[in-house]
Amino acid sequence: MELKAKNKIGFGLGTLGKDLISPIWGSYLMFFYTDIFGISGTAAGILLFVARIWDAINDPMMGVIVDKTKTRWGRYRPYILLAPIPLYLFAILTFTVPNLASTGKLIWAYVTYIGTGMAFTAYDVPMWGMLSTLTRSEDDRNQMISYLRNLSTAGYLVMVYAALPLVSILGHGSQSAGFRNLMIVTCVVSYIFALICFFSTKERYNTESNSATLKDMIKSLIINKPLMILIISMTVMYIFQNMPSAVGTYFIMYNLQAPDMVGLGLMLPTLASFVGIFIAPYIAKKLGGKQTIIVGFAAYIILGILGFIVASKNFSAYAVVAFLQGVCCGLPSVLLSAYIVDCSDWAEWKYGVRCDGTAFSLQSFAVKAGQALSGAIGGFVLGMTSYAAGEAVQADSVIAGLNAARYLAPAALALVTVGIMALYPITKEMKAQIMAELEERRKKA
User: Fold this and answer.
1) Of residues 188 and 215, which shows the higher confidence score?
2) 391 burial class (0-12, 13-18, 19+ CB within 10 angstroms)?
3) Separation CA 346–CA 164 (nearest Å)
4) Average pLDDT score over residue span 81-92
5) Using a CB cutoff of 8 Å and minimum separation of 24, what contacts does 164-167 make?
6) Is residue 314 predicted with pLDDT exceeding 90?
7) How far apart, in whole angstroms, are the C-alpha atoms of residue 57 and residue 54?
8) What domains, with CATH codes, occur in the chain?
9) Could you say which DSSP state residue 259 is in?
């Protein structure tokens, strides 16, 4: 074991520093845009979709920049110190309602939302890339990923459950002021965590600047078949995992007629994911990692169809389905992130080029694309079904659309993910061969 407790705690807090704002974005941003900020669901959906097109360009660019960075602090640590500043500034402005006309508000939303996404990438990519520099131990690495997932999930639970009560307290009756003040408090706490991470970690391996050319780095990604399959799978996975949160506030308020249960209802799948994260390594030992992921997705599909039939009007039935779906989502979360490092090992083994930062930038893209596209789909559903913001009772078309968006659409996307993930080529035997040959090369270097 190479990692000390202070390294694990510091690195974990650094990860939590960026992830504390994610629950507010994933669960409440669409509601904020439609019911508080004052733009339509369709306009918000288009905004989220456009932002992801830009991310497809921006995220890999950030990965290349990180891989080419060389400072006295290392390749990744400088970003942990500096990137949070614009991230938190843009995040606060995103949840601020300016005194502007409709067009001005829309421009404000585009600038602040896209700015937050770019700054998040500048923080997220180095965080994950730095993991490969902290230890060579696969056990350490897998334990760290599991620890990070659990810590982020705990933070997610707290923020989802506490967000609306805190909005009420901090806003003194004004939801607009409440969301802004909540984001200010969250960002201050998050930056303290980032500072702790910066001062408690040290890059021990691969801290030298990457000598590969930009062309070689891009080529190594494009022809990295395992990585491309993995990123596509993760993107679709994050879409269907985030859709219940994206439409969850509306679904619980209008379909289940339980507005007081929004926090608990959104929290249940995340709480259940702890169970999936905990049992995933044990199931993977029996079935293998890839098979465990596919089993989790298959069970999610069945639960989605079942939920559509029996859990569209009753909160108790919804709670059972949501909890079980959360367990299914927890199974692949640790395994897929570990596979990113495997894909980097594969590229180094196959082509002699290692680009951890660039590879993890694609994971960052997958996470943000999943969050945004799920929100975009939710926004389009609201627009197409004539959702009336602020109305206590919604049309039957809205109720039907929310039911399909909560259960059937995620199940269909989970089915797509199963088909894509079935193509992932790195087996346990291939991984052992890759690691043995890389270790031999490093000894000779």
Assistant:
1) 188
2) exposed
3) 45
4) 94
5) 164/28, 164/262, 164/263, 165/263
6) yes
7) 5
8) 5-444 (1.20.1250.20)
9) G
